[in-house]
Amino acid sequence: MERLAGNFANSVRNTHILRRSARHHSGRPKSLVLSQSAHRRLSPARIAAPEREEVDTEERLEDEEVEWDTQWVNDETGASQEVEWFVEDDDKESADEDGAASRKRLPAEVRCFDNAQIYIKAGDGGKGCVAFRREKHVPRGGPSGGNGGNGGAVWAVADEALNSLTSFRKQLHYRAPLGTAGGGSNRHGSNGADLDIHVPPGTIIRRRDSPEHEKPLAEVVTAGTRVLLAAGGRGGRGNASFKTGRNNAPTLAEVGEEGTELWASLELKLVADVGIIGIPSAGKSTLLSVLSNAKPKIADYPFTTLVPNLGVCELDYRTTVFADIPGLLEGAHAGIGLGHEFLRHTQRCKVLVHVIDGTSPDPIGDYNAIRTELELFNPALIEKPEVIAYNKIDLPDSGDYIDEVRKFLLGNGLAEEDVHAISAVTGQGVLGVVRRARQVLDQLPQEAPRQTTDALNMMELPRRVSAAEIDDFTITADLANGRVWLVEGEAIARFAAMTNWDYYEATLRFQKVLDSAGINKQLRAKGIRQGDTVVIGETELQWSDDQSEGALYAAWREEKKRKGTAWHGSRSWPHAV
Ligand SMILES: Nc1nc2c(ncn2[C@@H]2O[C@H](COP(=O)(O)OP(=O)(O)OP(=O)(O)O)[C@@H](O)[C@H]2O)c(=O)[nH]1
Ligand SMILES: [Mg+2]
């Protein structure tokens, strides 16, 4: 019978790296049983971090197209350090999911208000411990190494106190604490506390770079909802857990499982009852400022508002949330004039207040243009009830078209009570708009905020794969690239990841499992040869035809020596008495 003498390289995260190390193997003398090359951890920062380049020279400062940002990154040694990055707009564009050209010159506030990218890392599990009870008058006290604690998980919590994603501009990295290592005298490590990330209701959280069809991780709509983003790693078992009738002095322990790690993109869809829409400078922000407590920026140039403002209006002991959507231009549905950004916000509003600029030379044209943009973006938008605010009637030239506009609107299916002439500046007629909007809202069927995506929304930690599923695996060969065999299976991959190769017994146990799960048998049947590379999950091993336990031990020892890892024990430790 052959045995996969194994080795220990780990962290093969993609085939590119796999191929590199595979080439390395093939050049090495066959007499070595264990691979030496890839026992190298990839630093997490290198795995899936957005493609950002490091800042080098000052000349970058002069470049206007460069956005500056500060981030915490892990360097090679694992220590955190603060570095500055710049994001070239081109990079950003290609990395962005919708990548619309319109985003290119977005002011920074817009980008970060309803979109954010964050790094999430759940805590790793703590290591299990190998220890033996040593006490006076207690000979052969037995194994007493405790288990490592579980790593903390990362959750998203919908918090109604928030209404934007701006806080994610200040903090990008979210790490839950690790579980601590187990100790002697059967002391278990402590669990890492869970980390809650507070997001405003209406936030959708996806894996960054997730394919189109993949479900978002979470969509929180109601305040208080708590959804799992990343599960913490299980703590490794200590040697006390491996005690059996046959082996009452086991010298092995597991390492903790790694906590899930990901880059996530957050998207906020505003949850406003009423959206205020209209062409630029129609007076939308002015209207919001008089009907609510909001203090939006108001000025007599188009695109004063770049970020949708929310305002809460209290009338007759009822609160209504109004959103002042930035001005829409012709072509907004195609992303022109930041159109996509703004139209997205209108989707969740139940009622629209359409502000018409009474001083415009063509108010009907303006009105129709906006309606067309709404329809082209999403036909459901023009089905939403609309209240018209014909604005700026305090100005003399606003009267020119007022009757014509009214006639047109009434002919267009709007009711008399839906059309209001107002002056946002003096406040004339504004109350009528608010009352009507509230009335329309009340007439609508009451519905709880609904999810717009089929998000996973895991409310509990996932079920662990049980060890019994270890024989559920598939083997594929990639012989063109230096004879590599891929063994895929959740349970076996996890088992490999948690094996602490520093202990000889752990290596031996791993070999036994490969045998009993039938993996060795299948590999042989498929024609594996001496020196081939076998990849299980993120662990890389090298196949040896030499089946003896002696060869395995020699190989393990060779690897320890080369790596200079701590000598935790030997085949005959603790000494048999
Ligand atoms: N006289 C008069 N001026 C008004 C009225 N409403 C708004 N304005 C003026 O119109 C200009 C534009 O107003 P905003 O409220 O900033 O317009 P907006 O629709 O929010 O514009 P954007 O945010 O650029 O899309 C400002 O100078 C306001 O003072 C009104 O009822 N009467
Ligand atoms: Mg405005």
UniProtKB/TrEMBL annotation:
Its source organism is Coccomyxa viridis
Spans annotated as Disordered = 19-66, 179-199
- List the cofactors: Mg(2+)
Annotated CDD domains: Obg
Instruction: Indicate the segments forming the Obg domain, all copies.
Output: 110-271
Name a Pfam family for this protein.
MMR_HSR1
Spell out the HAMAP family in the cross-references: GTPase_Obg (MF_01454)
Record-linked SUPFAM superfamilies: Obg GTP-binding protein C-terminal domain, Obg GTP-binding protein N-terminal domain, P-loop containing nucleoside triphosphate hydrolases
Keywords tagged on the record: GTP-binding, Magnesium, Metal-binding, Nucleotide-binding
Under what name is this protein listed? G5115 protein
